[in-house]
Design goal:
The protein is of the alpha+beta class and 144 residues long. Helix content is 32%, strand content 31%. The protein contains 4 helices and 6 strands; from the N terminus they run ααβαβββββα. It has a 6-stranded antiparallel sheet with strand order 1-2-3-4-5-6, with helices on one face.
């Protein structure tokens, strides 16, 4: 579900802002989209209500990430998402004009699958960002 729709209280909104800052610290030229899904009935049928979804767009193709944009889906065990919800996993997918190029899921082996894969350094950054998201939601204090 769009991050804007999940930011229903200060703690969740603060954690979403912290996630944005984490990604911008690693990839400074990205543009953030807190509402990656359209609100038409067909799209809403496919959206997971137990997730916080954020898209990040590069000004052009990121050769190190083999994509033009990233879709980050942070999945929880229940709806509505509150600060005490258990984080199940994080999925990051890289897209370009041909569609999804790769996906990283923390559910399972934390490995990349797809047509292409990010370069080693960028793949490491993405895995580190996923670990930081887990730390952020395992800590019930407000994100700084």
């Amino acid at each position: 579900m769009n991050a804007t729709e999940q930011a229903k209280n200060f703690k969740i909104a603060s954690k979403i802002a912290a996630i944005v800052n984490l990604f911008k610290s690693q990839f400074p030229d990205i543009r953030v989209d807190l509402k990656p899904w359209m609100n038409d009935p067909d799209t809403l049928e496919l959206v997971d209500p137990n997730s916080i979804d954020i898209a990040f767009h590069f000004p052009g193709r990121s050769w190190s990430l083999e994509s033009r944009c990233l879709l980050v889906q942070i999945r929880f065990d229940q709806e509505p998402i509150e600060a005490y919800c258990r984080l199940i996993g994080v999925e990051v997918a890289g897209y370009d004009h041909r569609g999804e190029q790769w996906k990283l899921s923390t559910v399972g082996g934390w490995y990349f699958v797809g047509n292409t894969q990010p370069k080693t350094e960028s793949a490491g950054k993405l895995k580190d960002l996923c670990r930081q998201i887990f730390e952020l939601f395992n800590n019930n204090d407000v994100a700084a």
